[in-house]
Amino acid sequence: MKRTFAIIAAAMLMLVAVAAVASEDWRGDNRLAGTVVDKNTGAAVKGAKLMLRIQKGSNGGPDITADGNGKWAVLGLAAGSWNIDVEAPGYVVRKIGPISFQQGQRLPPVKIELEPQVVSAADTSAPAEAAHEEVKIGGKTVSKDIADAVEAANALIAEKKYKEAVAKYEIASAALPDSLDLRKALARAYYGAGDVKKAIAALEPVYKADPANTPMALLYANMLLEDGQLADGKQVIEALPAGALTEPTALINIGILMMNKKQPAAAVDYFTKAIAIAPSAVDGYYYRGLAHLQAGKAKEAKPDLQKVVELSPDSDQGKEAKEYLKSIK
Hints:
Helix content is 43%, strand content 18%. It has 329 residues and is α+β, with helices and mostly antiparallel strands.
């Protein structure tokens, strides 16, 4: 009997979560917000991806990412009926809809519950053959001990017991050092355990094996940027082919690091690029305004801060922008 082993490989959290811009016919003045939680535990699902699509025209709409508390919000939606697909590593994809609202209608927060995936490495339909079982990971035959280690690590990841998962994945990775799937899983465990440097080291060969893989490149770049490796993170981003960057997170992260290094002019350039990608997202305007203030250019900051207030007046960023504007004549 043969069994092929599946490894959980989850996306790491980004520094900033913002909406990506799709086609134009879904735009309007409405707002929708809510939370994504684990159906079994009620715990927040960090970094869940929500894809909102309107049921008319080109069926366009934004893709957004829940923050570290599972919270999400999107501005600028047209009135009508909307579908929402929600996905997160380790969970079953949830399809919701239609959710309908009229122009100017404010809906209560939407609570979305995700069902954890059931991960199994074994086919138990023929227990009598267990002694002759052939276990494969990534197409390579391994011992049952190694397969059990991966299975245990997968379960630990689902329970968010990252340090324990690291120990199990390290056992499997030592036996299969060329397995990129295991490297991704190990990077996820390191990251969850708070060891960004080891997560980067684990993910580096995965990125180098296919640098044109945009999602993986962005994941790797954002981890580098989170670790403060500005030059390396920029190099990964700038190596992407033209048009590959469709959401502004990495650009905003670079700009924030530039500000931390007291380089506001360079930061402004990256925030401007982020705004070009997502002109209806608040973060680009907010951070560009702060960069202008850091450079002592209050007049240049004013229109960006006004845009923040226009887009999100009741958010923390909107409230801060209002305070900054009071001091600008």
